[in-house]
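Forwarding the complex inputs:
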Amino acid sequence: MTARTVTIGSRDGTDIEAYLATADGAGRRGGVVVIHHMPGYDRSTKEITRRFAELGYDAICPNLYWRQAPGAEPSDAAAAVRAQGGVDDSQLLDDVAGAAAYLRSQEWNNGKVGVIGYCSGGRQSVLAACHLDLDAAVDCYGALVVGTPPPESNRPNLVTDLPSLGSPLLGLFGNEDRSPTPALVDELDQRLNDLGKPHEFHRYDGAGHGFFSPDRPSYSVSAANDGWERIEAFYGTHLS
Amino acid sequence: MCTYNTVTTELNGSAKGPSSKWFHVDHATVYYDHPVHAMAGHALNIDIADPSAGPGQRVALELTAESARALVQATEDALAAVPPEIIAAG
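Prediction (whole assembly, two chains):
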């Protein structure tokens, strides 16, 4: 595996920073775009990116906060971007599109690229799969995919985007989560069934929001271990 | 969950932050969401900053909801104990 920081072109023409981890050796392989969570382009997200390379993919995590806070320490960048209202959906799509194009330009890419996001990135992963050319999407406990956003939120739900979902979706959720609640996961499941969209959901008792985060009290060993196995199998099917 | 809700306010004062140096602050962001360092799923986060000096020019707090309320109360108590003419004099 090789991991390094690179500069990639976003779809809107802006150069942004990204963290790239590539598998060793020759042989065609898929790519994975990792969308970092709201706390930023941090160490734990880079660890996730490297794990995909260890699994045999080329993976990239675009720094969604590069425009507003280039070079800043990740938590400082997250705070600065939050104070400015956050990353809007159009910018997110530009950056994920640029990251996917970068992966497809790599020597060993087989033409297939998946996306994964955690927490706020879970919603953004679904959003990307509704509007970009992607081959598989993973939503890890993303809030505001369905349901009514709180009045103070400037993020719409994705109900009107879901008919455009263009790739299979893997959803991983904790049954103790308050956002999305199990009822909201049920609603998303039903909407995707009604739309005839291929999807696969796994839900974990005793796990809440953020169960994949090993550096947070929300970490759940059993849910995270099973979740990683589900991701590996899902990408093995759709990115090979 | 990511709450997305963010409350901001203007300030006028100073803070001691990066490199133990004092700096002028004019802006605060307050939100209840995932902390970076505190051992809690969610925390009341406060960033007191000088945005004009870059993202790193801030003092950050991550408090439990109970602690945040205690801080609000302590602030109110401290101000209530000061004669109004002294506060007015600045």
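Chain B has a mean pLDDT of 92.
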